[in-house]
Fold this protein.
Amino acid sequence: MRIRSVYQRLYKTYGPQQWWPADSRFEIMVGAVLTQNTAWVNVERAIANLKQASALSTEAILDSSHEQLAEWIRPSGYFNIKASRLRNFCQWYQQQGQYDRLKRLKTALLRQRLLMVNGVGPETADDIILYAFARKVFVIDAYTKRIFSRLGLSDPSAGYESLRAQFEKALSKESVKTFNEYHALIVVHGKDVCKVKPRCEQCCLARVCQRVGLD
DNA sequence: ACCCAGGGTCATA
DNA sequence: TATGACCATGGG
């Protein structure tokens, strides 16, 4: 499996990323929702607003009005829809008994429950499961699809679940720490190897291969 | 001015 | 099942 050798190369080149950047598990979960299709620096501003208002908790978020919540998270974009999603998530989190209760669930069941929340899709759920619950799920994002498809290691038309299964099989003997670092390395340095989305297949492929050390 | 960022939902075919 | 529209801010 070359999925493992790509990891070795990335880790050796860039070192540990120490993810997820947050002060608490709840902050990770909030960040996972707010970062949907959004630059992280904007999420940081939104989270800073919540902290300054002492609103980074399920209670404060559930007690606030839609307008107030939307105003706090405005810098992260899509603020109306994300205000609803955050509220949905907090309702669910409260109802499920928060971390201490949820941590008892097996990974597959935890994932299934997370996906029931309107506003939490596969990637957001897996961010939460991996970084807040420290379970071995591999988060598939746009860079992962792009890079591995250009390396010829995955089918370009492969869906989320299929890719996830492929990675999790290849990394089944690895630790949670490896899952953690691998996704972080792809997100932080993925744009390094392939800056633009468009199709400079040749140059992108060449750069990816060079960085990652495959022929 | 244009493109994109640590996506997801819903309607349509 | 697979696209497309939509959400919306901020940096390059």
